[in-house]
Every structure is written in C-alpha cells, then in structure tokens.
Specification:
Structural class: alpha+beta
CATH architecture of the largest domain: Beta Barrel
Shape: elongated
Order of helices and strands: HEEEEHEEEEHEEEHEHHHH
Number of helices: 8
Strand order of the largest sheet: 5-6-7-10-9
Low-confidence stretches: 19-26, 81-88, 254-267
Largest sheet: 5 strands, mixed, barrel
Number of domains: 2
Mean pLDDT: 75
Number of strands: 12
CATH topology of the largest domain: OB fold (Dihydrolipoamide Acetyltransferase, E2P)
C-alpha cells in the first residue's frame, strides 16, 4: 500500500510540474487577475512585468479568456526605470539593439517597395512584414487600392525630412532577389504601420518573430473592423485575405511559391498536457485493478 501511495504522490508531483510549465503566465506580476493594476496598457497593447536581480522589466502580454491568465506574447524585454510604459519610439530604443541607417528617397516602385540612396549606393528595399495590392503587375490588372497604396508610400517618402531603415534581428538582411528587408521610419513614424492603418496593406510574410509584428496586427485588426481600404466589402471580394498579394519580383523571376505561414506551437503544449493526463489516468486505473 505504501508503494502505491508513493507512486500516486510522484504522479501528482509530475502533473503539478507539467501543469505549471504549460499553463503559467511567465511569473508576470498579477498574471491571474484580468483587472490587475500591475498590468499597464500603451497604444492598444498590454504589458506585464517581473523583477530579476532587483531590476524590473516588461513583456507584452495578452489576456487568455480560456485559461483566465495573462500570457506573454512577445519575448522582447522592455526596461523602464520609472516602471511606466511610454512611447513606441522609446520602447524600440530599449529593445534589443538593431541596426539603423539614414537614407535618402530615390524612387518609388509600388506600395511596399522603394529605392533609396544608402551611402551613395542605390538599393531596392522590400518593406518587412506587409503586403500591398499590386499596382505594376506585367500581366494582370491593377488590384483595388494598389495605386492608392503606391501613391501613399511615394508621398510619405518624398516629403519626409528623415528616412531611416531599421534591420530586424530576426530577419535576413536581404531576400533571394537581393532586395533589402527593413522597417521604414519616416520622420519618426513606422511606414508599415501607417499603410496598415489606412487599409492599404495587410500583415504578411511573417517568417519569424519580427520586432513590430504585434503592433501591425493590432492596427490591422482595427482597420478590418472599420472596413477601411482593402477591407471594404467590395474590395475584399476581389481577393481572399488568406492569400498574399502577388509580388512583382516573384512574377518577373517566375518563381511564385506559397508563402510559409508562422507555426502555432500552442497546440503542442495542449496535446502534451493531455497526453500526460491520459497516461496518469491509465496508470491509476492499472494500480486499482492490482489492488
């Protein structure tokens, strides 16, 4: 009987550890309370903190209605000595150091591609993490809002006093066509975010956890709900939002391929926990039969 009790105790401990591993909120202060005053909001997003070695740092979090907890959705760490989340610009300064370079606008290509003068060299840049409707396709008609997206981008770049390219640590610096991949800052504003907010671009080509993905996704959600630009009924009927717009570079190089979608690993955790519970149930049932 003592042996059986030991086995049951061990199983309970394993279950407790497994449950904590898969279900905890990263030890974020107030992670079990949806209305916790320890969770702060900024620009439509929420941040929670923990203290390590006496230093407080924040992670972006999102409330999980199913499990009633705050989950960390962005592993990036933000530090703030006054324990306040301030502006996106200040958050980006506190994030992992990324390479930024000031450039001059040279020529517009379409809504999500442009040419710049970088240290005397003319380079082509594909805007990271967004896709705009086609406006210069060699064989197809111009897509709805393609011209508007192209004009918007050219206007912003042409009138900008300062343009910066920011290269994401989680992205290749160039794509297979030799185009640079970057975040585009125009006078302190993120051009990708402006395009998404105006309903002139969708969030796409997410091959990794890019720095401003969550910001773009939040802006896209607002644009969809407001049915702005490409999300208007008559425009969205022209193409499925599940498909990415055709990239002119892929057409010219005859190498159109399905885009890889970001992998969702949450289901793996849920399956693992379920399997542990099943194994425990089977073992307990077996022990009872032996008694």
């Amino acid at each position: 009987m003592k042996k059986i009790n030991r086995i049951i105790t061990i199983l309970v401990i394993i279950l407790s550890i497994t449950t904590f591993t898969f279900a905890h909120g990263g030890n974020i202060s107030g992670w079990k309370d949806k209305d916790s005053n320890k969770i702060v909001s900024h620009d439509g997003k929420y941040y929670g903190y923990h203290n390590k070695d006496g230093v407080r740092h924040y992670h972006e979090v999102k409330w999980n209605d199913k499990n009633n907890r705050w989950d960390i959705v962005d592993s990036n760490i933000y530090y703030d000595k006054d324990s306040n989340i301030t502006t996106l610009e200040e958050l980006s300064k506190n994030d992992k150091e990324t390479e930024k370079v000031i450039v001059k606008f040279s020529e517009g290509v379409d809504g999500d591609t442009a040419k710049f003068d970088m240290n005397g060299e003319i380079i082509k840049v594909r805007f990271l993490a967004v896709d705009t409707p086609e406006s210069v396709h060699p064989t197809k008609e111009v897509q709805a809002y393609g011209v508007e997206a192209s004009d918007f981008t050219k206007e912003k770049l042409k009138n900008a006093k300062t343009i910066e390219l920011e290269f994401d640590n989680n992205s290749d610096k160039t794509d297979k066509y030799g185009r640079y991949l970057a975040w585009i800052w125009v006078d302190g504003e993120l051009l990708q975010d402006l395009l998404v907010k105006e309903g002139l671009a969708k969030v796409a080509y997410l091959y990794a956890d890019y720095k401003y993905t969550s910001l773009l996704q939040e802006s896209e959600k607002v644009a969809k709900e407001a049915k702005i630009g490409i999300w208007k009924d008559e425009a969205s009927n022209e193409y499925s939002e599940k498909e990415d717009f055709v990239d002119i570079e892929e057409v010219e190089n005859n190498s159109i391929q399905p885009n890889e979608k970001p992998k969702d690993t949450n289901y793996i955790k849920e399956i693992s926990l379920t399997l542990v519970l099943i194994v425990i149930a089977v073992i307990v049932k077996f022990i009872k039969r032996k008694q």
